[in-house]
Amino acid sequence: MPRKHRVADPREQVLASALRLFTRRGYFNTSVHDIARHAGVSIGSIYHHFRDKEDIARSLYAGLLAQMVERIEAIQARHRTTRARCYALMEALFEITEEEPEAMEFMLYAKHREFLPSATPVCSSKPFAMMREMVREGMERGEVRSMDPMIASTCLFGGAMRLIMARLDRVLREPLPSQLEAVWVCSWRAVAA
Amino acid sequence: MPRKHRVADPREQVLASALRLFTRRGYFNTSVHDIARHAGVSIGSIYHHFRDKEDIARSLYAGLLAQMVERIEAIQARHRTTRARCYALMEALFEITEEEPEAMEFMLYAKHREFLPSATPVCSSKPFAMMREMVREGMERGEVRSMDPMIASTCLFGGAMRLIMARLDRVLREPLPSQLEAVWVCSWRAVAA
DNA sequence: GTCTATATCATGATAGAC
DNA sequence: GTCTATCATGATATAGAC
């Protein structure tokens, strides 16, 4: 849905269009001209707001990660036990996937190293680090069996993450929230003390 | 390691070079000239053996999936119980990741939809279907709790798959086989009857 | 079957008027 | 800050000799 003439906030409009086009066709199948057309701005305007094409992707990625960090912090503020926090996080991940699949896909599934050489892989981004820390705390409290925190968080959230990927790939038909209980039971069993 | 002059089987040599370059730099950051140079053959030779660049990726992908299917069949032939089969499969996946990380990465991590519009997503490929079927059989035998087979197989292998991804991203330091027991205990707990 | 040389084209990025 | 017009590069793919 390309905007026709003037655009309120060109920068945001460009980021929104880039997110859509990058996830639909991929980064390399999307030209800066495509983004300009879709966003309803000119090439010149884009290059005024962003250094280059890579900078668009970088800004997008940073913004989405920051949003994610905020959500995790909100969850940590609302719940105290590790079990409740992890459940709420899994629920949130499923909801975000349904409501903003493109955001989720860009964060998770895009191979950022291909077009963001400087960016660290997703697994080592702050949100993932927070998930690992959450699980590590659970071990201290005796809620989670004692083991390597990396293994524990991967096993706890791995099923959910793979299911999210399957959903993004349209391999899974049912909306994720309807599967939450089943997945949670399996996931928590995997690591519960 | 580009070969200097004549090459035994140019087709195989091209596929091997493509696998290396695609995984190191990404599909779109690799030109056909790069592949030619690395494989020690000419552009003309490449276009004699392959229809176009996409055809190289397609052949590579199909070959790797076929190999994977063979390995799974071998495991099914060697083991009878679902538990033993799944364990052997996880072990094999970990070993393959260490021994042929590029093959694993190309199959799993590359976003094939970007450059293989016709290919189905990895999750719906034959090896993944075989994994789901393996788990479904386990339910009939009473080894695995009764639930949606898609959920069960995702929860059973999700942790291992995510760990493989973390290893390919060099986020995980330790070789995967050394983590096998810990991951297996968690994974089997998740779905065991 | 393999090679070199080349056609064709799209893309990222810039210049410079308004 | 936004726009149009344009440049320069490097890619895919082909032609045609050997």
Task: Jot down its keywords.
mainly alpha, homodimer, 193 residues, Arc Repressor Mutant, subunit A, 2 domains, DNA-binding, Tetracycline Repressor, domain 2, 69% helix
What's the SSE blueprint?
Two copies of one chain form a homodimer.
Chain A: H1 10-25, H2 32-39, H3 43-49, H4 53-78, H5 82-99, H6 101-108, H7 112-115, H8 126-140, H9 149-168, H10 180-191
Helix pairs in contact in A: 1-2, 1-4, 1-6, 4-5, 4-8, 5-6, 5-8, 5-9, 8-9, 9-10
The structure holds a DNA duplex (18 and 18 nucleotides).
Task: Write a brief caption for the model.
With 193 residues, chain A is mostly helical. Chain A folds into two domains: 1-50, Homeodomain-like (Arc Repressor Mutant, subunit A); 64-191, Tetracycline Repressor, domain 2.
Tell me about this structure.
Two copies of one chain form a homodimer. Chain A has 193 residues and is mostly helical. The first copy, chain A, folds into two domains: 1-50, Arc Repressor Mutant, subunit A; 64-191, Tetracycline Repressor, domain 2, CATH 1.10.357.10. Chain A has ten helices and no strands. Chain A has helices spanning 10-25, 32-39, 43-49, 53-78, 82-99, 101-108, 112-115, 126-140, 149-168, 180-191. The structure holds a DNA duplex (18 and 18 nucleotides).
